[in-house]
Amino acid sequence: MKFWKKLELHWKIIIALGLGIIWSFIATGFFGGIEKTEEFELGSDKAKIIQSDSVFTQVVFRFSKIGAEKEKIKGRLTGTGEKIIIEKIEEEESELLAYALIPNDKIESKVQFYAKSSSLVSLSEFTSDWVAPWGDIFIRLLKLIAIPLVLFSIISGIVGLTDTSKLGRLGGKTIGLYVATTFTSVIVGLLLVNLFAPGFQSDEETRLKNRVKYELWAKESGTEIKDGKNVLEDPQYQNDIAKISRTLKAEEEIAAKSDDQKKLDKLKENTKSTKDNGPLQFMVDMVPTNIVMALGDGKLMLQVIFFAIFFGIALLFIDKKRGQPVIDLMNGLSDAFVKMVELVMKAAPFFVFCLMAGVMSKMADTSTELLSIFQLLAKYSMVVILGLILMAFVLYPTLIRMITKIKYTDFFRKIAPAQFLAFSTSSSAATLPVTIECVEENVGVSRNVSSFVLPIGATINMDGTSLYQAVAVIFLAQFHDVDLSFADQITIVLTATLASIGAAAVPSAGLVMLMIVLESVGLNPAWIVIIFPIDRLLDMCRTVVNVTGDATV
After folding, report:
1. What is the DSSP string of 383-409?
2. Nearest CA to 145 among 360, 421, 359?
C-alpha cells in the first residue's frame, strides 16, 4: 500500500490502463472460455442447403448443444471471421438446428458456430453491469466539472489581466498557433499515407471489385470520376463486372441489416445539416441565445467560451468597487471547481480501470473478433499512429524548444495524467479540467493564460483528428483504386483544417467532418463504415494528441 501511495499519478493511471485491458481480454475469451462447434462444409449432411435466391443461400446446420443459451450463439465464416446472419435456432433433443443465410459468393466457405461459456458470460455481464458503469460515472463527473470550470476560469483569467490589450494579442497568438499546428498535422498525415499506401490492394480481383464499387456509386450519384478511368465501359472487364455487381448487391443487403448502417444513417443526417450551413455558420453558432441552455449542453462549449469572454470584458469596464464582489465570486467558484478536479483525480486509477475494461469489451464479442479487427486495418492504423507519434514527439517538442526553456521530457512528465486520461475517455472536453490542473500546477503556466487558451483548444484545436481525417480519406481512395490529384489533396488540407474549427458543436464531430472531407473530393461518404471497427481505438490515440497540442500551445 505504501508503494502505491508513493507512485506518481500518471504511473497509477498506466497500471490501471493495463489491468483494464487485461480484464477485457479475459472477459472476451482471450485466455479460453469460448465453446465452438466443428467446422461445416456447406452441402454436407450437417449443413444442408434449403433454398437460394440471387443473393443468399439458406442453410440449416445441425450440431450438438453447447453450454450457452441458444439466443447467444453466433456463427462465422472460419476463413475470414465474418459473421453470418442467423434467422433462428431450434432445439431437437440433444442437438440444435441453426437456420442461417450465407451470401452466394461465400458458398464455398466453411462455417463455425460459437458462444461464450456460462462462466465467461457471467464475467462479461458482470463487466457490463458492475464495472463499466463506473467508467461512465467518471466521464460524467469530468463533464459535470468541465463547463462551469471553463466559464469561471475564463472570467477569472480575463479580470486578472491588468492590460486589456493583452487579451487581443493572446487570442490572436492562440488561434494562429492552433491553426498552424492543425495545418501541419494534415500535411504530415498526407505525406505518410502517400508514402506507405496502406489502402493499396495487391490482389487484382479485390482492386477491380473496389474500383467497380466506386464507379457504380459515382454513376448513381452523378459524381464526376476524378482520375479519368472508366472500368465500367472497358470491354475486357465486362464478365467480371457482371459477377462483381451481383456480389455487391449481396453485400448491400447484408449491410442494410447491420448496426453500422444505423450509425451511418445518423451520421448522414448530421452531415447534411452541417453541409447546408453557410460559411459563417460556425460564428453564428458561437453566440448563445440562452446561456442556461448552453451551460446545460456539453456540445455548446464555444457558446460558453463566448459568454465567458464577453462577461469578463464587461466586468473590466464597470466601476471597480461595484465589480469587485462579482470578481471575488468568480475567483472563488473557479477555485472550488479546481478542488473538485483534485478530489475526482484521487480515484482516477479505479475509474480508468473500469473505463478500459468496459470499452475494450464492447469493441467485440470475442477475442478472435477483437484481433481480427486489428488485423484487417493494421496497416492503416499503424500509419495513423505513426503520424500521431510524429506530432507528439517531434513537432510539439520542437515548438517547446523554440518558444520556452522547458525540457520536453519534463513537459511530457508533467502533463502525463491528462494524456492518459485523454486516452481513457476519448474526450478532450472531459479531460479539460485535468489538463488545466496539469498545466497550472505542474508546468507553472499562469491561470490567466491557461484558463483562456485551453478551453478554446479543447473545442477548435484538433490536430490528431485532422491528421486522422487526411490519412482516412487517402486510405479509402487507395482502397477503391482511386487516384487523387495534387489539387484534390490540397482540397483535403484546406477542408480538414477548416473542419476542425467548425466541428465543435457537431455530434460525432470527427466522423461527420470526415464524411464532409470525403464529399469535398468526390468520394463516397458511406465508405467510413470500412474504418468503423477500429475507430474507437484510434479515437483514443488521437485524443491524446489533441490534448497534448492544447497544452503545448
Report:
1. HHHHHHHHIIIIIHHHHHHHH-S--HH
2. 421
The 3-state DSSP class for residue 384 equals helix
Distance CA 435, CA 445 (A): 12
Write out the three cell numbers for 355.
Answer: 473505463
Q: Which residues pair with 76 in a beta bridge?
A: 83, 112
pTM passes above 0.85: no
Q: Where are the domains of the chain?
A: 34-118
* Domain range 34-118, CATH architecture: Sandwich (2.60)
Residues 480/452, Cβ–Cβ less than 8 Å: no
CB-based contacts of 541, cutoff 8 Å, min separation 6: 384, 385, 388, 423, 464
Task: List the pLDDT tens digit at each of the 553 positions of the chain.
Answer: 677 777 777 788 888 888 888 887 777 665 555 667 678 888 788 888 888 776 678 888 888 877 666 667 777 777 666 777 788 888 887 788 888 888 777 777 788 777 766 666 567 778 888 888 898 898 888 888 888 888 888 888 888 776 667 777 877 888 888 888 988 999 999 999 999 988 886 667 777 778 888 878 788 777 878 777 777 777 766 666 666 666 666 556 555 555 555 555 555 555 555 555 566 666 777 788 888 887 877 666 778 888 888 898 888 888 888 888 988 898 898 888 888 888 888 888 898 888 888 776 666 655 566 666 666 678 899 999 999 999 999 999 888 888 777 888 888 888 988 998 888 888 888 888 889 888 888 888 887 788 888 888 887 788 888 899 899 999 999 888 888 888 888 888 888 777 666 555 444 566 777 887 888 888 888 888 788 778 878 888 888 999 998 888 7
H-helix segments, 426-506? 428-437, 447-460, 463-479, 486-502
Distance CA 54, CA 245 (A): 11
C-alpha cell at 302: 464555444
Query: Which residue matches cell numbers 497540442?
Result: 549
Q: Please name the amino acid found at residue 547.
A: V
